[in-house]
Amino acid sequence: MKKLWSLFKNENGNVLVLVSLSFIGLLTMAGLVIDGGTLYLTKTELQKVANASALSGAQALTTDSESNVQAIIDQILMKHDEADALDGVFINLNDKVEIDLGKKVPLAFSKLFGIETVNVTAHAAAQLGVMGKAKGAAPLGIPESVSLVYGEEYQLKVDSSDVDTGNFGILALQGPGAKTYEYNLANGYQDPLQVGEIVDTQTGNIAGKTVSVINDLVQTCSSQDERDCPRILLIPVYKPYSYDQNQMKQVEITGFAYFYITEPMSQNDTSIKGIFLERTGTGFDDPNAVNRGAYSIRLVK
To answer: What DSSP element (H or E) covers 35?
Structure first.
């Protein structure tokens, strides 16, 4: 009887030990889950900030100053309260910007094992590519044979006088007709255009429709530096594709350019005055696109 009672007491002690060990194990797992979750959330948020900073900074890569890129990055970091997390920035104008962020994250449970903080890092790089596909193009075009001098004034003709081929850069996006042309000039063509696509041209004199739209656009903003300025037009670049007698009927899209309208038009004007810009916009790059200063941005490793 005494041996049996002794065995029973020993089993109670074993159960108590097992329960204690299990409880400690559960606490350890819970602590690791809490700390691990904190690190994961911090890493995720830091990566989002790094991506946003790189993409925003890349918008200024076409300027001639690294300080412009740095200023935008600093602004984004301050907006997200992560200015102190900046570890380093690499800027290569007209190409790429890279950002490294890092911050020490205090831990809760892991302090019991002597680990008080963990350094969480994030890296992001954004690179320019020559734009080869985009929405919002104006129904105007320039031949790829034209070499652009950015900042120099150009005139885009909107009537057919003094043009031998019968084509003066007016594209029949979404079909022919003055009303369709007027809408697309004011709002941009809402379907994507891309390199290699064949587009019909529109002949005839549509200078009258152009004047009212251009004069409205000129009133929308006052500087080419405004990111969403409507007087900056996305212009398709083309090469001739097919002729009918002396008229160019179709062109092939080979790239894109940005054109800033510099002044209003009078009723007697037959061309739009403006300057071509090097700038970034929303679209997709294409290695086959001709480079006329329009770039898209993408995140790279």
So the answer is: helix 2-58
Q: Is the dihedral of CA 281, 284, 287, 289 positive or negative?
A: negative
Is the distance from CB of 175 to CB of 191 less than 8 angstroms?
no
**Distance of alpha carbon 57 from alpha carbon 89, whole angstroms:** 10
Taking the CA atoms of residue 192, residue 198, residue 204 and residue 208 in that order, the dihedral angle to the nearest 10 degrees is 10
Reading the block at residue 137, the tokens are 């193009």
- Beta-bridge partners for 271: 157
DSSP-assigned beta bridge partners for residue 123: 100
- DSSP H helix total and E strand total for the chain: 4, 14
**Residue-level pLDDT, tens digit, the chain, 301 residues:** 555 555 445 555 555 555 454 545 444 555 555 666 777 888 999 999 999 999 999 999 998 889 999 999 999 999 999 999 999 999 999 999 999 999 988 876 666 566 678 888 999 999 999 999 999 999 999 999 888 999 899 988 887 654 444 445 788 887 777 888 889 999 999 999 999 999 988 766 677 788 999 999 999 999 998 888 999 999 999 998 887 777 778 899 999 999 999 999 988 888 899 999 999 999 999 999 999 999 999 999 7
Please enumerate, as own/partner, the contacts of 112-115 that have beta carbons within 8 Å and a separation of 24 or more. 112/31
- Output DSSP code: residue 110: G
**Cα distances (angstroms) measured from residue 174 to each of 137, 177, 188, 259, 262:** 11, 9, 11, 21, 27
Q: Which residue has the tokens 């997200």?
A: 80
Measured CA to CA, the distance from residue 62 to residue 85 in angstroms comes to: 26
- Residue 255 has a CB neighbour count (10 Å cut-off) of 23
Q: How far apart are CA 80 and CA 74, in angstroms?
A: 10
pTM: 0.82
Using only C-alpha atoms, what is the Rg of the chain? 31
